[in-house]
Amino acid sequence: MDHQKLMHELVEFRHSRGWDEYHNLKNLAEAVNIEAAEIMEIFQWKETTDQLTDEETTHLKGEIADTLIYLFYMCDQLKIDPIDVMKAKLEYNKGRHWKEDKNV
C-alpha cells in the first residue's frame, strides 16, 4: 500500500470515529510526544537494544506505529506529504556539516 492510500485510510478511520474535532495541531503534537515517550519507556533501564524480548519488540512496533499515525495526521492537517518533507530534510542534511552547523 502506498503512503497516500494509507493516509486516506487513516483519515477515513479518524472520521468514522468522530475524532476530527480533537485532532488539531496542538493535540496531535502532544499525542506524538506521549507516544514517543512510550517508545523511550521500552528502553528504560536497558544497557543495549539486544536486551529486548519478543514481547517488547512487538510493543515497540505498536508504539512506533502510534507515533507515525499521529505524525501522518499532522501532515494531513498541514496539507503536506510526509514523504516529500522527509526527502527535503534528507537533501538538506546531506549538505550540512554537523560540527559547524547549529541549525536543524
TrEMBL record:
GO BP: any one term: nucleoside triphosphate catabolic process
CDD domains cross-referenced by the UniProt entry: NTP-PPase_RS21-C6_like (cd11537)
Protein name per UniProt: Nucleotide pyrophosphohydrolase
MF annotations from Gene Ontology: nucleoside triphosphate diphosphatase activity
Keywords: Hydrolase
Coiled-coil segments on the chain, per record: none
Organism field: Ligilactobacillus aviarius
Top-level lineage group: Bacteria
Keyword Disulfide bond tagged: no
Lineage: Bacteria, Bacillati, Bacillota, Bacilli, Lactobacillales
Any Pfam family the entry gives: MazG-like
